[in-house]
Design a protein that fits this description.
The chain has about 400 residues and is mostly helical. The chain contains 16 helices and no strands.
């Protein structure tokens, strides 16, 4: 049992590492194949997908892990119904946003290109949730097959997509291939037959659970992606590519930690809260994230500029202060991860949004810097201040929740 659990944790961490590394590899291919300007436009397409996904995320995949009845067939079927409804809404939103997004940037992707992305939430919505349900028992083999298979398909599609379009439209093609492969593999690895139920009670339950998460997702978009929109408007596509590459690389560890925490930390906290061993487990979880955050600042500051120069080319090499500021921003997000998972485990799904309000406020600061004509370093500084403030707020909220979580250490 111990060996199986240890192997499961290895999978839970290695799959996000592979996925994020593949995303970096994708940007490297685009940087060399289509150039910095087109890479900036391709990043805008990926931003649009993330906007729609985050704005419609009611936490179905987290609810099936967190809910006491998440392992039952009726609950799973009802959540799969919620996922389909969410997919329909997200697709319509993407189609509605397409003309506005194209209008925002005169020389950016066309409305038709943005509209093509509407198929992605539909493909995701018809996926099977069984591989997520397995995470309740710390079983990650199915998740590994689905996510790794989708990542491999995305990488395999890069060459043909670039050969056919040779511009930012290749990004839309590889994202659609990735979503379609994920959907098909989720059905192939499922142990249960696929069933869909449209249960009003579960819809309302999902809404109560997910509405704060949707608000948090909207705030996360503002905090994680809105600064790139500001850069695109205030500077040029090549500068967006530079900022996007540095931010993507800086947030790579934070993204990995966040995805792994959803698979490992959340079910661990849920189990330990039930067994009342939380005060033993929590300090270990917190210490590991402190170490990761410290290593992030030091390692990224020392290595990132040279690494980006070697891999992407000198055109995308960042300055020192952009590097330092985004390293601090990413480290702050890593430190916030266990507090966010604790909030979900205790049902306080509004706490992550409350913390991220602080980060969202920094977007206004970044916009002010851009309007004033300040250099790119100021946008990175605003990101660092916002992430650090959000983490302090998350720690404060855990202190307020102390009656619900005995023995918590902050």
């Amino acid at each position: 049992m111990h060996i199986a659990f240890r192997n499961g944790r290895i999978l839970a961490w290695s799959v996000p590492v592979l996925a994020e590394a593949a995303a970096l590899g994708r940007s490297v291919v685009f940087a060399w194949a289509i150039g910095a300007d087109e890479l900036g436009r391709a990043m805008m397409l990926a931003l649009a997908v993330r906007l729609v996904e985050m704005a419609s995320d009611v936490g179905v995949e987290r609810l099936i892990v967190q809910a006491p009845d998440g392992d039952t067939k009726p609950m799973q079927g009802a959540l799969q119904g919620v996922a389909i409804l969410r997919a329909g809404v997200a697709s319509v939103v993407m189609l509605a946003l397409a003309p506005a997004l194209a209008w925002m940037f005169d020389d950016g992707p066309t409305a038709a290109t943005f509209a093509a992305l509407a198929v992605i939430p539909v493909l995701n919505g018809f996926g099977h949730l069984d591989y997520r349900r397995a995470e309740r028992q710390f079983q990650y083999r199915q998740m590994a097959v689905v996510e790794v298979g989708a990542t491999v398909a995305m990488l395999a599609a890069l060459g043909p997509a670039v050969a056919v379009w040779a511009d930012h439209r290749a990004m839309a093609a590889v994202l659609i291939v990735q979503a379609g492969t994920r959907m098909m593999l989720s059905h192939l690895v499922a142990a249960r037959q696929y069933e869909v139920l449209f249960c009003t009670k579960t819809m309302m339950r999902s809404w109560r659970f997910g509405a704060p998460l949707m608000l948090n997702a909207g705030l996360l978009f503002l905090t994680f992606y809105a600064d790139r929109l500001i850069v695109a408007q205030a500077y040029d596509w090549a500068t967006l590519a530079l900022y996007g590459v540095v931010l993507q690389l800086a947030m790579l560890p934070a993204q990995i930690v966040g995805r792994a925490a959803g698979s490992v930390v959340l079910p661990t906290l849920r189990a330990e809260l039930e067994s009342r061993r939380f005060d033993v487990v929590w300090p270990r979880i917190l210490l590991s994230h402190v170490v990761l955050a410290g290593g992030m600042i030091l390692g990224f500051t020392l290595l990132a500029p040279t690494l980006i120069d070697l891999v992407y080319g000198n055109e995308l090499r960042p300055g020192l202060w952009v590097t330092v500021a985004l390293a601090v921003a990413a480290a702050s997000r890593i430190l916030r991860t266990p507090y966010s998972q604790l909030a979900v485990a205790t049902g306080r799904t509004g706490d992550p949004a409350r913390a991220n309000i602080v980060r969202a406020a920094a977007v206004a600061l970044a916009g002010g810097f851009a309007l004033a004509g300040f250099p790119l370093e100021s946008i990175a500084l605003a990101a660092a201040l916002g992430e650090a403030g959000a983490t302090f707020r998350a720690v404060h909220l855990v202190g307020l929740a102390r009656p619900l979580v005995k023995g918590v250490m902050v």
